[in-house]
């Protein structure tokens, strides 16, 4: 597969009046944290909430009149679906999107609202993909691939031009990898304009196929597991994308855990005042949790913001726990008058806020003269948590659980 810089420039001209030229913003807090001048590229504010709109619109706009008349089909669990749906509507093209039956209700509704005919088929993405290909064959639709397509890659590559025009001497760009379309387009554009810029790709450690290819590790035991970064959860990495682009333009590929992504989502909410979905925060998770060579200036791609509202509170709580901002603990004390008061006073002396407290006198393992007390505390740091634990132990409490 071949994409040239000229293809990306052509895509940019085609897209200029329909996309948001998303903000490229310096972050003082991230710069202090990472010891590099950090810039965020906020593709979570792109139309449909992710970078996917760029590639989808470029693909559909390059169809022949006959192909447009027949319509397009795509398979997706989320962002690609919405990008194709809106792009097709703007071009006056009929679109059919096949989504897994367990796809987010909000994402399926948004895809319909953009004008697509949504078909729910299969329990996993792979089954939705197979059904979409079946519809392509039966109805003459054009299949819009989420990443393995030259026009899609060129559309995503316009992000690279926007970045390098603002920051021509940039040292590093950190980019999430799912199928590889985003990193391929950005890397090609960026390295054409500045061959010295380093490109770091980020995958979820629950779907690390491309990382294995990059490191020349065997793929036999690679399994896709549930992850909050579902937008980059690709079961089988594309050898074509690796051979054509990633092996030539990418300098490093790392993986991050769900916990690290959750921590990054919370950081972006609190410090950058932006909402990123799991895959959208993966690049920041890598910057925060891996010892990367970022250089003097780096750009972190925030690729999408379509987070599932049903899990936002869980992600925030998890991220707060990991950052030492929320602390859950259980202690055992003698069941005597005044002990709870002594514990709460010790917590108050350490300037922590008690959010929840629960007594348990009957659990298995407790003696008749013991009680278990569970606390949820608002704290300021991991160091603060350690001070609280020491203060409680000095009252005679035995800590049996903490997180």
UniProtKB/TrEMBL annotation:
<keyword id="KW-0456">Lyase</keyword>
<dbReference type="InterPro" id="IPR044561">
    <property type="entry name" value="ACT_ThrD-II-like"/>
</dbReference>
<feature type="domain" description="ACT">
    <location>
        <begin position="328"/>
        <end position="403"/>
    </location>
</feature>
<keyword id="KW-0028">Amino-acid biosynthesis</keyword>
<comment type="pathway">
    <text>Amino-acid biosynthesis; L-isoleucine biosynthesis; 2-oxobutanoate from L-threonine: step 1/1.</text>
</comment>
<keyword id="KW-0100">Branched-chain amino acid biosynthesis</keyword>
<dbReference type="InterPro" id="IPR002912">
    <property type="entry name" value="ACT_dom"/>
</dbReference>
<dbReference type="InterPro" id="IPR050147">
    <property type="entry name" value="Ser/Thr_Dehydratase"/>
</dbReference>
<dbReference type="InterPro" id="IPR005789">
    <property type="entry name" value="Thr_deHydtase_catblc"/>
</dbReference>
<dbReference type="InterPro" id="IPR001926">
    <property type="entry name" value="TrpB-like_PALP"/>
</dbReference>
<comment type="similarity">
    <text>Belongs to the serine/threonine dehydratase family.</text>
</comment>
<dbReference type="GO" id="GO:0004794">
    <property type="term" value="F:threonine deaminase activity"/>
</dbReference>
<keyword id="KW-0663">Pyridoxal phosphate</keyword>
<keyword id="KW-0412">Isoleucine biosynthesis</keyword>
<dbReference type="InterPro" id="IPR036052">
    <property type="entry name" value="TrpB-like_PALP_sf"/>
</dbReference>
<dbReference type="Pfam" id="PF00291">
    <property type="entry name" value="PALP"/>
</dbReference>
<dbReference type="InterPro" id="IPR045865">
    <property type="entry name" value="ACT-like_dom_sf"/>
</dbReference>
<dbReference type="InterPro" id="IPR000634">
    <property type="entry name" value="Ser/Thr_deHydtase_PyrdxlP-BS"/>
</dbReference>
<protein>
    <submittedName>
        <fullName>Threonine ammonia-lyase</fullName>
        <ecNumber>4.3.1.19</ecNumber>
    </submittedName>
</protein>
């Amino acid at each position: 597969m071949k994409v040239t810089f000229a293809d990306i420039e052509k895509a940019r001209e085609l897209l200029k009046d329909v996309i948001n030229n998303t903000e490229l913003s310096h972050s003082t807090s991230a710069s202090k944290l990472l010891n590099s001048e950090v810039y965020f590229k906020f593709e979570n504010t792109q139309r449909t909430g992710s970078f996917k709109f760029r590639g989808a619109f470029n693909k559909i706009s390059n169809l022949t009149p006959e192909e447009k008349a027949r319509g397009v089909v795509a398979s997706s669990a989320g962002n690609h679906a919405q990008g194709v749906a809106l792009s097709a509507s703007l071009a006056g093209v009929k679109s059919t999107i096949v989504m897994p039956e367990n796809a987010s209700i909000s994402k399926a509704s948004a895809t319909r609202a953009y004008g697509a005919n949504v078909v729910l088929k299969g329990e996993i993405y792979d089954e939705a993909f197979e059904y979409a290909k079946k519809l392509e064959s039966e109805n003459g639709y054009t299949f819009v691939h989420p990443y393995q397509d030259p026009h899609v890659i060129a559309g995503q590559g316009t992000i690279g031009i926007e970045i390098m025009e603002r920051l021509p001497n940039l040292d590093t760009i950190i980019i999430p990898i799912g199928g590889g379309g985003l990193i391929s387009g950005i890397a090609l554009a960026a390295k054409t304009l500045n061959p010295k810029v380093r490109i770091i790709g980020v995958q979820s450690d629950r779907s690390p196929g491309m990382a294995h290819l990059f490191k020349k590790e065997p793929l036999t035991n690679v399994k896709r597991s549930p992850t909050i970064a579902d937008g980059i959860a690709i079961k089988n990495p594309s050898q074509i994308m690796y051979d054509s682009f990633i092996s030539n333009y990418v300098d490093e590929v790392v993986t991050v855990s769900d916990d690290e992504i959750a921590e990054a989502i919370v950081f972006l909410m609190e410090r950058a005042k932006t909402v990123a979905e799991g895959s959208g925060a993966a690049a920041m998770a890598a910057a925060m949790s891996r010892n990367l060579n970022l250089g003097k200036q780096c750009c972190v791609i925030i690729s999408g913001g379509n987070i599932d509202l049903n899990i936002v509170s869980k992600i925030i709580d998890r991220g707060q726990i990991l950052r030492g901002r929320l602390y859950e603990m259980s202690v055992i004390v003698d069941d005597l008058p005044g002990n709870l008061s002594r514990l709460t006073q010790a917590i108050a002396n350490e300037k922590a806020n008690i959010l929840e407290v629960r007594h348990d006198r009957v659990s298995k393992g407790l003696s008749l003269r013991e009680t278990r007390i569970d606390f949820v505390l608002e704290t300021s740091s991991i160091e603060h948590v350690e001070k609280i634990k020491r203060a409680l132990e000095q009252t005679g409490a035995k800590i049996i659980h903490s997180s």
